[in-house]
Amino acid sequence: MLMVGASVGMLFYQIISFVMPELAAQPALYILIGMGAFLAAGTHAPLMAILMIFEMTHRIDLVLPLMFACVIANVVSSLFSTPAMYGVTLSREQAARLRRQISSMTLKGLVIEARTVLRQDQTLEQAVAMFQDHPVRYIYVVDENNHYQGVLSNQEVTRWLLSQSPMTTPISELMVQPHFIPVLHPDMTLGEGLELFLTFMGERLPVLLSKDEPILLGVVRKSAILEQLEEQRALSERHQPPHIDFRISGDK
């Protein structure tokens, strides 16, 4: 940034020297003023830029044009609503800190009881009753050991009803789809869980103990993950390290 400002200052000096050579001062002054102006524009902190350049030179004759250039540069930069350089840095640090927090948090604490579960030995009549009581698209099917077998969709139940199948038909004879929807595990991170929800249009997904032992533990809701992420983002913002604001009161 300082190099760009110095280059622009030198270019401005060459233009002045060519157009009005009698007004051209020392090139170093133009370079320093250009550095200060770009620093003020990039940080939205003109007072800091003025003080830094003055501390580098200790030249009184530089203060007035430097103040003018820094204030003008800050105003022009503010008109374009560009984020301050330090603000961008802080935002990136905050985002990185949030990613680290999310990567260390698992879905275990978000698992709730699954209310729409049937065993394989239960009947079509019980599946119909459960769909009537719960406005869901899928019922989770387990065996006698609570091992997850897949899902039974409301469309499949409707198809069997239209075919006038006996209401005593066991669920094991219906089309239970084991891999129709993604499944979660309690040791997955919030980020991994959210990625699976992005491929699924529903609000909840089943949680299994592990791949080797697919015991149905419950479900996790998409809204619970989003609420947890929002809570962590708010905590990250509240605990971000304080930073010094060099802007003058009129620039805030």
UniProtKB/TrEMBL annotation:
Cellular localization per UniProt: Membrane
InterPro entries according to UniProt: CBS_dom, CBS_dom_sf, Cl-channel_core, ClC, ClC-type_chloride_channel
Membrane-spanning ranges: 27-54, 66-88
Gene Ontology molecular-function annotations: chloride channel activity
CC annotations in GO: chloride channel complex
Keyword set, alphabetical order: CBS domain, Chloride, Chloride channel, Ion channel, Ion transport, Membrane, Transmembrane, Transmembrane helix, Transport
Membrane topology classification: Multi-pass membrane protein
Entry-linked Pfam families: CBS, Voltage_CLC
Major localisation: membrane
Domain CBS as annotated: residue spans: 105-167
Protein's recorded name: Putative voltage-gated ClC-type chloride channel ClcB
Highest classification ranks of the organism: Bacteria, Pseudomonadati, Pseudomonadota, Betaproteobacteria, Burkholderiales
